[in-house]
Amino acid sequence: MATTVVLAGLGTGGWHLYRQSLLPSPPPDVAFPPAVGFVVQLCLRENIGCRAGTIEQTADVVRGVPEVTSSRVVPHEEIMAQISEISLTGEDPTENGQGAWPPQIEGEFHRTEDFEAVRRRLTGEPGVAGVYRRAGNFWKGRADLRVDLCGSTSAFTTCRNGARTDAQRDAVVAWLREQRGVEKVFFQDRPFGLRLIKHYQPELYLTINDVSEKLYVRLDDPADARVVGRMALGMPGVESANLIK
Predict the structure, then answer these.
(1) Fold of 139-243
(2) Which of 23, 140, 156, 233 would suit a FRET pair with 242, their CA atoms being 20 to 30 Å apart?
(3) Which residues pair with 145 in a beta bridge?
(4) pTM for this predicted structure
């Protein structure tokens, strides 16, 4: 009753301000970090489109590229550990097997423009199946949890009822704000998400319809993000959730 009286007394202008205060914050207005990361997918067995090579042989070739400033081999076990660390589904990713998650080489080059030179130098070398830009992590250090909202093209079973509604999005935002230790909730709309993808991976052919909306959550204690994320998974309009590491 008291809440109703307060809201009724806000008036048109007051209600607008109150409604605005419930909306999530836009992404931080900062420059995107330089896109200088790359990944080499390895060809360890003879296959169509690549010549087999050893990990050590390929790593030496990568280190010899003038534009490359640093590189390292990321073993299968580390890749699986990274997936397990951010995943909130409770599933065991190791069930996919070694063959599904082979080791790879990650590295950086001097400038964004150096990617084409690196790719040309490595393509066709023994042990190289492909060279790709590494997706950046704009939100690392800015949020602890990512909640993906259902889009019209989502294939997740959690989105079998279609794209999220405004009411569902607002309910998720309100619920997140009620959780212990939640400091801020950001809303990444599709235009911002597309800009982010194009910044890090401009070769990808994507349109606005291929990008989903996301909520990013910053907590006082990042350790609480796992519990909050798992609880959010069951809410209408939520596609998936992952930790930010």
Answers:
(1) Alpha-Beta Plaits (3.30.70)
(2) 23
(3) 217, 243
(4) 0.85
